[in-house]
Structures are given as C-alpha cells and as structure tokens.
Amino acid sequence: MSAQPALMEEIGSAAGRELNTQGLHADARRESLRLLALLSPSLLLVFAIIIVPIGWLFWLSLFDEAGGFSAANYARFFEQASYIKTFITTFKVAFIVTGACVLLGYPLAYMLSQLPRRAASICLIFVILPFWTSVLVRTYAWLVILQRKGLINSWLIDLGIISQPLSLANNFSGVVIGMTHILLPFLVLPLYASMKTIDTDCLRAGMNLGAGPTATFRQIFFPLSLPGLASGVVIVFVLCLGFFVTPALMGGGKVIMWAMRMEQTTSLYSNWGAGAALGVVLLVVTLALLGLFQWLLGARATGVWSSR
Amino acid sequence: MSIAPSALPIGMRGIEKRFGSVPVLRDLNLDVEAGEFLTLLGPSGSGKTTLLMILAGFVRANAGSIRVGGDEIITTPPHKRNIGMVFQNYALFPHMNVFHNIAFPLKQRGVAAAETAERVEKALDLVKLQGLGERRVDQLSGGQRQRVALARAIVFEPRIVLMDEPLSALDKGLREHMQIELRALHRRLGMTTVYVTHDQREAITMSDRIAVMNAGRIEQLDKPETLYARPQTRFVAGFIGESNFIPVECRNGSVWYEDRRIHTAAPVPAAGQHLMVVRPEKLRLLADAEPTSGVNVLEAKVSDIIYQGDSFVCYAALRDGRQLTLRDYCRSDVLAKMPAPGQPVSFGLDAQDTILVAAD
C-alpha cells in the first residue's frame, strides 16, 4: 500500500487520534436525542396513566375522613381484626387457587406440549375459549352448576351417592373452584410455551445416557419447565390477590377478599382515604412478593434462567 | 479408560422404515465390526439419520433385526441399550454444569460419588477440558460443547458410540482439527463407532469403512480408498470426489468412446452403454510430442482457466460439448505448458485411472 505523502501529512497534522472527534460526538448526541423523542409519547402515556394515578392514590391514603392529614388509614389495619382477617383470607385463597392451577395446569400443559402440532392447536383453542366469555357469565354458570339445587348436587342425589346436598357454592370452596377455572389459562399458556421450547434431543440424550422415562422427566424435563411454571404461578398469584367478581358472587358474602373490602370502603362508606390505603398496601405487598420471588429464582438462576 | 476389550459388533438385517407411506429405509443390511469406525454417508433424505435413530432406539423400525454381540436389541428401550450418542446440536442439559452433564450417565447407573468424580475427571482429560467442570454450558464455545457432549457419551464406557453429524456446527478450521482428534480418540478407546455425515471429505478422513447411502439403501460399503478409486455406481462416483461422466459403449470385449478405443485396467463390463468416470486430478495436459500408448487421449477445447493459488482448474469442452475438468498443482513444468482459453488441448488419462460404471 503506498499512501500519498500529502494525505499522510494531513492526517498527521490532525494529530492522528483526534480526527473528527467533535463531529462524531455531536452525531452520537443527535442520535440519542432522536431516540428519546421517539420514546416520549409512550413515556408521557406511562406517566399519565400509571405514575400520576398511583401517586394520587398514595396521596389520598394519607387523609382521614374529616380531610385531615393523618396515618389513621394505615393504623386501622393493625387495630381492626377484620382487616387482618381479610388479608389472611386473600392470601389463603391466592395460595390455594395457585396450587390448584398448578396441579391441574401442569399435566394439561405437558399433554399439550407432547401432542402433534395439529391436535395441540385444537386443544389450545379449548384452553383459550373461556377468554371469549365474560368472567361474570362464567361465574354465574358455576353458580348454576354448584348451588344447592344445581347440576352437581341433583345428579349426585339422583344417583343416590349423597342424601344431603353438598355446599359447593356461596362459601370458600365455591370461590376456589370459580377462580381456579378462570385463572387456569394464565398458568397453562406460559407453561405450554416454555415446554415447547425444551429440546427433544435433550430428552433423547437423557434416555440414551441411561435414564428411564420417569428419571428423564424428573431430572431433565421438569427442571427445564420451571421458568415457564414460575411465570405462570406469578401471574395467577398476583391476579388472585386483586380478584373481585368471582369471590363477590361465589363467596355468598362469607369470603371477603381485599378487593371486595376496597369496594365496600369506597362505595358503601365513601371513605376514599381508607380505600386508597387498602390499594397502596395491596400494591406494596404484591411488589414485595414479586421481588422475593425474583430473588429466590435469582439464587438458583445459574442454569435454567440464564440459558434462555 | 479402556473400551477396546468390550467393543461389540453390530449386525443389522432387513431394516425397513416407512414414514406414513413414504419408505425411508428399504431392506437394509449392514454389519459393523467390533471396534470399527464406520460412517454412514449420504445426501439429506437418504435415510442415514433415521438408521442412526433406529440404532439408538428413538425411532421404531417397521421391520428388521439389530444384534449387538449376538443380543437382539430392536425392541430394547433406549435407556437400556447402553449406547453412547453425540447429537448434532450436542443436546447438553442447560440446567447442569459441565461436571453434572458428564456425570449424568454415571448417576443413572448408581456409580458412587468418589468414582464418579474420578471418571468425570478422566473424561474431561481425554477431551482436553481439564478444570472446566464447574463451567455452565452457556459459557462454553461451540468446540468446547462438542467436547463435553463427547465426554458425556463415552464416560460410561458404552459398547457402541453413535455420532450424528457432530461437527457440522463448527467452523471449518475447528472441524478439521476435531476430525483428527475424534479419530485419535477412537484409536485410543477402540469403541465401535457409527458416524453420520453428509460431508464426503469428513467421511474419508475419519472412517475405517464408509457406507454410502442413497434413497434408503446402501449403494456401496468399502474402505475410503476403494470407494474413491473404484466406485461401483454413478451415484457413488458423483457423491465422492468430483467427477465428469463420459458415455462409452462396450462391444466385442472392449470399450469405445465414439470411434476411439478406451484402455482400462479394470475388467471390461458386459456389452451396452456405460459411463467413464473422469476425476479432475487424474487428467493431465499432454504435450504435442508425448507418447500416448496405453493412455486414453481426450481432445478438447479450453473454455476457462481458474487460478487458485496452489492449484488451477482448467475447464474444457469435448467435441460433443461435454465438460471436462482438469485440476493440477501449479508446478513450473505444468505452468510452462498452460494453454489459453479457446486453445485446443489433449488430456491424458491413464488406463489404471479409468473407471467405468453402469449408465442408469
């Protein structure tokens, strides 16, 4: 390569390394500004519909009924047993419903992931189908099925299996059955998606290396399906904590969950401050749980999570 | 770790496999000798991977028998076959580190922890990955993953090792390096190995014998040298090495190309149409005064010359328009008589390099 002496001189006089530095720097800055400009509509939207209302909620929760600035709304949680009871009920329902969804959803997702493509997509439609019907309609349908003179009780009595109707609706079990049904797809869909990404060759390798079907499932398939299971569990659990319609209709007034308490406080007693405090507590507890969950997974993140 | 004494032969008889109504393997018979490195070579869709899957037990054949050292295994479930396998995409377990991946087959066999550690260490040594046991699989390069997969497949001292295009994901340099390493490892451990590839160079470099597969059948099973020098079908001649085919006719016990008699060292086949297989490196440029007794002379016109540094390729057309390719190294004596495009040339082909296959 023979560079022209004149050109070499010119580059040399610009002190080599500093050639065009200012221009390039300005160019990089212009680019970041342009990106920021493109982002601004969504940033504004997030600010207007998330940050502002939550800030407002928090602000509201700091005023008592008389309009005075106080922490009375939060103190109430510790003073009144009914709040603590509601809190415990909410978490009990959330745990049981999430557990039921896992027990029902894992085998279902596993079956779907093993079916041939065509059969799997037909079955998936049946999983998604309930999404096309409103939660209200589905909850009333469960009432029809589960109530004292409903389908299940009349069949069981007609068959002579029981003499007295079982109390399936308007109580705790009614709430759990209804919520499990409505939330099941939220567990099955992410779980199915993650099971589909498990490499069949990994399972084949497991068997080839001497692990029988059960051992291959336990040592390879199940650990690899955990990320999907975890996201499904988080979604279902968080949705449970704020669930309103189904517990309100299926609980028969006996099962009071957090969201129902909020509704009572604001619409029945018009105590916006207390309602806002309930909302803030639910939000904080949910975020804390998500954080805990993330941390727990992070501790064992070495393989499963980072390899995806 | 010595596997040689327990290496076992494999005998496959009458293997048939159809996917729906599409036949993939047709009445396939193949014997693999104990300790042999046998390669199944063929284009995609020739059935080589299906045959390997049947051997491993992942795919069920429609008919046939597989005997390993006398025991029928065609209905044995894969986890009881005791056959090691290296998968094309390695199929390492992403949720386990290198140590646990390699220890997996030992764990299934109930090997004690201390012995497991020792054997994993030895296997890591063997594939030159000393000290990488604690690494996560996603922290490894392609070549290292390949070695882990290999270590995992041999750590439990299987009687047979299967490899499904294990080097196809590596770049060229590393691939060639691993070919030599795999070969050396096989020599050292002596396990019966069935290797699948579509890369003829790889097959020739590594194998004791090669089974060339086409459309669900074995076209030819031979040593690499024999396969290259004496292909028995047009498919084999075309698939292994470069070839030009020239139609010839056999009559009255001799071979004719147009009105010229072709000399061949091989016995003259039955009367009828045949193909002469011409390898580019077997052709040479003839000088005008060169004696040509016992040499087949092909007159052609140069259409192009491609310079490739160490060698050159000369494309020429015969009188009937058929393409001939000559490849030679750039030695000064060859370069001195290098023709120019458009110039007539005479190519010489020795009788012992003249291969005939049936026209199909």
UniProtKB/TrEMBL annotation, chain A:
Protein name: ABC transporter permease
A Pfam entry, by short name: BPD_transp_1
Family named by the database record: Belongs to the binding-protein-dependent transport system permease family. CysTW subfamily.
Main location: membrane
Keywords per UniProt: Cell membrane, Membrane, Transmembrane, Transmembrane helix, Transport
Residues in the signal sequence: none
Spans through the membrane: 35-59, 87-110, 122-145, 172-193, 228-251, 272-297
Compartments where located: Cell membrane
Topology class, membrane: Multi-pass membrane protein
Alphabetical GO biological process terms: transmembrane transport
Domain ABC transmembrane type-1: 87-293
Listed CDD domains: TM_PBP2
GO cellular component: plasma membrane
Organism of this sequence: Mesorhizobium ciceri
From TrEMBL, chain B:
Residues of the ABC transporter domain: 10-240
Pfam family, one: ABC_tran
One GO BP annotation of this record: putrescine transport
SUPFAM superfamilies in UniProt: MOP-like, P-loop containing nucleoside triphosphate hydrolases
Top-level taxonomic group: Bacteria
Statement: the UniProt record of this protein carries the keyword Zinc: no
GO molecular function, one term: ABC-type polyamine transporter activity
Keyword line: ATP-binding, Cell membrane, Membrane, Nucleotide-binding, Translocase, Transport
Subunit structure: The complex is composed of two ATP-binding proteins (PotA), two transmembrane proteins (PotB and PotC) and a solute-binding protein (PotD).
Family, as annotated: Belongs to the ABC transporter superfamily. Spermidine/putrescine importer (TC 3.A.1.11.1) family.
PANTHER family listed in its UniProt record: SPERMIDINE/PUTRESCINE IMPORT ATP-BINDING PROTEIN POTA (PTHR42781), SPERMIDINE_PUTRESCINE IMPORT ATP-BINDING PROTEIN POTA (PTHR42781:SF4)
Name the record gives this protein: Spermidine/putrescine import ATP-binding protein PotA
Gene that specifies this protein: potA
